[in-house]
Amino acid sequence: MRIRRALATILGLTAGLAAGPALAEGAGKTKTWRHGAITVTAHIREPAEKDGDRVVVSVRGRTVASFHFTEFNRLGNVFIAEMDPANGYPEVIVEEYTGGAHCCTQIWVVRAPAKWSRGRWRALDLGGFDGGDFKPRDLDGDGLAELKLHDGAFLYLYSSYVGSYPPPKILSVRHGKVVDLTRKASMRPILRREEARMRKWIAEAEKEKGEINGFLAGYVALKLLLGEGVEGWRLMLGKHRPTRIDYCPLPGPGNTDGCPVPVLKLPYPAHLLITLRELGYIKS
Length: 284
Fold this sequence. Notes:
Elements: E1 6-10, E2 21-24, E3 30-35, E4 38-43, E5 54-59, E6 62-69, E7 74-81, E8 91-97, E9 105-111, E10 122-129, E11 147-150, E12 168-174, E13 177-180, H1 188-207, H2 213-225, H3 229-239, E14 244-247, E15 264-267, H4 268-278
Antiparallel strand pairs: 1-6, 2-3, 3-4, 4-5, 5-6, 7-8, 8-9, 9-10, 11-12, 12-13, 14-15
Helix pairs in contact: 1-2, 2-3
């Protein structure tokens, strides 16, 4: 789910060099984060206020980005981390929380223009993700931070929320663009740990005769990310619970809602194969 409920304004500023991080929190309704020349100031609304939270990113006193949330959404977190080596400043990660039982954090990354450019600061939209507190970390030891997120397309896809497994999605910013680093060789240890965890979940679901198809769908996707899709597919075929799932053979909202042709009833493996292709896990 992608949530676009904040107003982001980006102003021009030439890049420079940022020093080490420092965090300061003001009293009352204002929070301030500082990292060298970068200052992030957040106005947190009181419950009685109708106006939403506001976040301002400035460099040496000049505003380079601002976010104004609706009254229903709140500021989740602010982080300052080095993600993109192509400019002279670290990046500012702003998380907006929309509330709800299984929802949702919208993530922006504010970055400076390239070192050789006089362009404008930009807010890159990473999308909306279930949960919160997605702290940037250097996951592969290359000195640059990444965000370990997950693919929410798998939630509720074949099982309930608790019976679903969204495979990991590792995103960062490189040379001014959002990049998916999940398949990068240096991220394989993270995927291996996920695989071991999923093996246990699948074994428990199989033993307790609980929901398993949602776990298996995410597991096959994870194995595809590791380049081991055949192995994952074989495990799925041996453990899935046979069922048929509605599928619209023509594109449409919600897949089956308003389908202009008769809806097909596909076996679970066939539906999963189509889904994995549509989501980009199967490339050919």
